[in-house]
Amino acid sequence: MYFLSRLFFYFKKNIFSQKANFSIIFSLIIILFLTVTSFLIYILDWYYKKTSMDHANNSAVLAGASKMVSNFNRLGYNFSNHAKRLLIDDVKKFIRNHVKENLIQSSKAFYREEIQNIVNNSNVMIAQQKNDLKNYSSLQNNIFSVSNNKIFYHLDVTTSYDYRLQLIENIFHHRYSHKILSFVPAMLTIDTGEPPNFLIELVLDFSASMLCGMDSDLETEDSDSVCQKNKNSKITALKNAVLQLLDAINYSNAQQQVYIGLIGYTTRVEKNIKPSWGTEKIRQYVSKDMDALSTGSTDSTPAMETAYRIVTADKKRSFWVNLFREKVTIPSLDFQKFIILLTDGENNKQKNDVDTIKICDKAKKNSVKIITISLNASPQGKIFLKKCGSSSEYHYDVKNNASLLRVFQDIFRVIVHNKYQVRVKG
């Protein structure tokens, strides 16, 4: 008994001593700090995964809408219900593949097997809206009108991920998870009536590498020596292809419906021909003055930002944006809007690729169709341009002069026949 009483005495003495109090408080603070930090890391990681899924779904639904319109243009609008189901199934598969590719390329938030599980458990819904659009129209301030010349489709993409709380599982030895849900709905409107007016911005690479030949490999060769000696340059091939596009517009009697501008860039905007009706201003510049610069790196961000501000000039902007930026005006018409970006590879800095893709995403959310063309680009350059384009079908990989000419013929057909809008709800 004496031994126990002495033990209790010393225990109480040590516990309530000043040094012991400090040690206990310090330990509790460390434990609390580590716990809060762990939960903060979980919250940030959860948010990163959710944002990655939302971005992948958003990009996929926009690309799926472009794919759907492309299929309609190729096959027409009058076919059997069975054929329509096959077309829709093809688009659903395309959207799932696009979600997978986007998560792999754009996000480090998931392992490969996790991405595959997300795709396998995803749900893609495509349904035609036949009659009543009142509910949706009221939500969107009557953006969409019902008429005999319009076809409406709902596109919904849903993905989920079981987020496991490892810290809690380790403490309580029990499985704890929280489901991350990403739901992106959109409305596709296809206009089958009279051809609309077109707003087109050509965004062209004028950097030094455009003086090189179409078959030059800038990753393995000295670009300066190749570019100085080669007469069959990329910029010359580009001139011919652009002039052919302008000819096609004129021959189709569409010049009165085309409002077109041109931006040439290196690391900055070198040339900005503001849009105008018809092709004459662009033709004069391309045939007489357009050329690449003998020096200059590549950064497409300023040029794409300028193009985005031009094609969305009819959108309302805040007072501060209008105060500090040059005001751009375009006619108040229902334009079908296109940005055509052509370059021979990725930007010199990866950050510029990321910044450009952010602008591309903003443009696509505002119903701007983006067509990208790579001239003998590196694998990384092709990935960059595919991400920027409205869909994989809106990206062209060019290897020689003949294929570049064919690409601009295809682009003309895409511009003339694609009359649609896609709006992401919410």
Automatic annotation (TrEMBL):
CDD domains: vWFA (cd00198). Residues 215-411 form the VWFA domain. SUPFAM superfamilies: vWA-like. Keywords: Membrane, Transmembrane, Transmembrane helix. The chain crosses the membrane at residues 20-44. Pfam families: VWA. Signal peptide: none annotated. The keyword Secreted does not apply. Gene3D superfamilies: von Willebrand factor, type A domain. The keyword Lipid metabolism does not apply. InterPro entries: VWF_A, vWFA_dom_sf. This is von Willebrand factor type A. It comes from Candidatus Liberibacter africanus PTSAPSY.
